[in-house]
């Protein structure tokens, strides 16, 4: 398979889904919604469902702004709010160009299981430069690191039910008004940092979270 990501084994549905989602994301660009209600397939960390504060991030493993946010802010955010169970952090998937690579990454993360899902997502975000050079090799390397065999990875990225679910999750995000990645919501209210080159700043996100935590 070539670096242009023409996954020969991917189904016709996968190719059509990737093309459609690429067009939708391209119109919005990579970086900018309301969405706070539970969604099918939510992956979460920290406090349990029903927590006082829920932070929802819409992001893609192929979005460079998402990668910058992770590199600059994730550890501080996780240490302060997730590890302490002060918030429920929810990650929602939106594939950005090349969408077929993002979809494959999301499917591999889900096949790795809930306990390793975020490990795969974060490793893919941290490996974007490598992934641009040889996407297939990077996806398989990360999948192998999560305990998946090459055969299992191939099954994951071509699974019709998985592809349909990925399609549904992306459509739900766009229907909710999310226009780009990363987009953050705190208890259903979008938090933005105008002019930022790496998405919502941790300072602005913390301000919104702390205000919600302070409420009776």
Task: Please render the helix and strand layout as text.
Layout: H1 12-28, E1 43-46, E2 54-59, H2 64-82, E3 88-93, H3 99-111, H4 114-126, H5 128-133, H6 135-145, H7 150-158, H8 160-175, E4 183-186, E5 189-191, H9 202-213
Parallel strand pairs: 2-3
Antiparallel strand pairs: 1-3, 2-4, 4-5
Polypeptide structure, described:
It is a single chain. Helices cover 54% and strands 11% of the residues. It has one domain: Glutaredoxin (3-Layer(aba) Sandwich), CATH 3.40.30.10. The protein is an alpha+beta fold and 216 residues long. It starts with 11 loop residues before the first helix and ends with a helix. The protein has helices at residues 12-28, 64-82, 99-111, 114-126, 128-133, 135-145, 150-158, 160-175, 202-213, and strands spanning 43-46, 54-59, 88-93, 183-186, 189-191. The protein contains nine helices and five strands, in the order αββαβααααααββα.
Please compute the radius of gyration using only Cα atoms.
17 Å
Distance between the termini: 56 Å
Helix content: 40-55%
Q: At the third CATH level, what is the topology name?
A: Glutaredoxin
CATH architecture: 3-Layer(aba) Sandwich
Low-confidence stretches: 1-12, 22-34
Features:
216 residues, alpha+beta, Glutaredoxin, disordered N terminus
Offer a concise description of the structure.
The protein has 216 residues and is α+β, with helices and mostly antiparallel strands. The chain has helices at 12-28, 64-82, 99-111, 114-126, 128-133, 135-145, 150-158, 160-175, 202-213, and strands at residues 43-46, 54-59, 88-93, 183-186, 189-191. Residues 1-12 and 22-34 have low confidence and may be disordered.
């Amino acid at each position: 398979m070539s670096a242009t990501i023409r996954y020969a084994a991917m189904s016709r549905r996968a190719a059509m889904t990737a093309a459609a989602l690429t067009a939708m994301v391209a119109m919005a660009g990579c970086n900018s919604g309301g969405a706070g209600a539970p969604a099918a397939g939510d992956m979460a960390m920290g406090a349990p469902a029903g927590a006082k504060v829920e932070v929802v991030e819409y992001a893609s493993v192929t979005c460079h702004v998402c990668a910058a946010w992770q590199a600059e802010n994730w550890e501080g955010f996780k240490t302060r709010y997730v590890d302490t169970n002060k918030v429920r952090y929810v990650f929602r998937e939106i594939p950005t160009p090349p969408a077929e690579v993002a979809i494959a990454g999301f499917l591999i993360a889900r096949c790795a299981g809930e306990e390793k899902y975020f490990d795969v997502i974060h490793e893919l975000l941290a490996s974007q430069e490598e992934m641009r050079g040889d996407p297939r090799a990077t996806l398989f390397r990360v999948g192998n690191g999560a305990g998946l065999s090459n055969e299992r990875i191939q099954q994951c990225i071509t699974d019709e039910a998985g592809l349909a679910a990925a399609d549904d999750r992306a459509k739900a995000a766009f229907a909710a008004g999310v226009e780009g990645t990363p987009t953050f919501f705190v208890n259903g209210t979008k938090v933005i940092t105008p002019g930022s080159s790496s998405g919502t700043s941790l300072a602005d996100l913390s301000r919104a979270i702390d205000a919600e935590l302070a409420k009776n």
